[in-house]
Design brief:
Pfam families: POP1_N
InterPro entries: Pop1, Pop1_N
Organism: Balaeniceps rex (Shoebill)
Order of helices and strands: HHHEHEEHEEHHEEEHEHEEEH
Protein name: POP1 protein
Domain Pop1 N-terminal: 4-97
Largest sheet: 7 strands, antiparallel
Number of strands: 12
Helix content: 25-40%
Shape: elongated
Number of helices: 10
Length: 289
Amino acid sequence: KQAEKAVHQKKEQSKTKCRKARRRHINLVAEFNRRQRKNIWLETHIWHAKRFHMVKKWGYCLGDSPTEKSYRACYRAMTKHCLLQDLSYYCCLELTGRENELLKQLARICSIDTGLTFEEACCLSGRFEGSLNLYRADRYPEDMLGPITFIWKPRDGSENRQLWIWVHPALKQDMLRELKAIFQCSEPEEIYIPEPITTSVQEEKQMDVVLSIGKKRKKEDKEGEKVVPVKKIIGDGTRDPFQSYSWISQTTGIMISDRTMEILRYRLIGPLSHSVLTETLKAASLQTV
């Protein structure tokens, strides 16, 4: 009788879970991927969604304004401490190839009359980031494409260089189309095939197998093995998942790669920004084989 009473108490305790626990999805990763089918989330989305009014723009879900009634906290961080902004929704285009060939073709879409160019010594060394306005090939001062920022990877002794161009998602397709035209990149190098997303119907079938009372439910497939959690979707809101993301030219040897959402970008503002970076980033020890 005492044993039956204990089992009965356990059953009653399991029903007294809070509403939030009862409604919790059994696989949060699969649920989050399902909610990102139309608008991609940034890595900091969960943090922002709890504190900001979210808007859907350019294929992303972005934090627009804080839920607080004043902006004093942000202003205080900018003036006295450190304010971090997530700019990962900016699109990153990577150019790889010989330095002289890159500079030769890039000179066609910019002009020294507007200021710095890709050939500026301080930027070419990779020490500083540059910014300029791009135009359609040989069309300056007409047909402006838009502003961009860029940074060169420091030299490693080879004649091949890497250049990262950061562009607003609204201008990405025009920029990418112009870069492929001047470098004659037409052949896709790699095509990304997204992994299948677990649907609600599939999840219901996987949850049919329930273990004994008192143990957590575990998702199993038809063979009785544990189901591997669905991985996060790779890509961005400005590109079709089945579209190629890398192109190479047989004539110039230049390769263009779309690194959007693969390279995260954060902006730190405030007098303590450098201190935050030095405390956060630790130099790795150099190991030689």
